[in-house]
Design brief:
4 strands; elongated; single chain; alpha+beta; four-stranded antiparallel sheet; Alpha-Beta Plaits; 104 residues
């Protein structure tokens, strides 16, 4: 079982809700957590940015990551969205099994 934790940032809660719902409904993610009001500081196009963003954390399998990224990109308002996948190496076995069952 190769599971992934996918970290995504978006511009606001409404965009996060739409993307999260689409990922779960299409079985690309078992679950998506949404965290509002993250403060982000970064350079974009040569200018220092200071913004509030919303975080999505999607739980999925390695097999689904590529399609999940494509789906997020197709719905995302940013030109270059943050979409990063991390391997889940340990966790509560029944929960990890549940993730795999939900996306397969």
């Amino acid at each position: 079982m190769e599971l992934r934790w996918v970290y995504i940032t978006v511009g606001n809660s409404e965009e996060a809700q739409a993307i999260g719902k689409a990922l779960v409904e299409s079985r690309l993610a078992a679950c998506v957590n949404i965290i509002d009001n993250m403060h982000s500081i970064y350079y974009w196009e040569g200018r220092l940015q200071n913004d509030t963003e919303t975080v999505l954390i999607a739980k999925t399998t390695k097999k689904k990551v590529r399609r999940l990224i494509e789906k997020v990109k197709s719905m995302h308002s940013y030109e270059c969205p943050c979409i990063i996948s991390f391997a889940m190496t340990e966790g509560y076995p029944p929960f990890l099994q549940w993730i795999e069952e939900q996306v397969n």
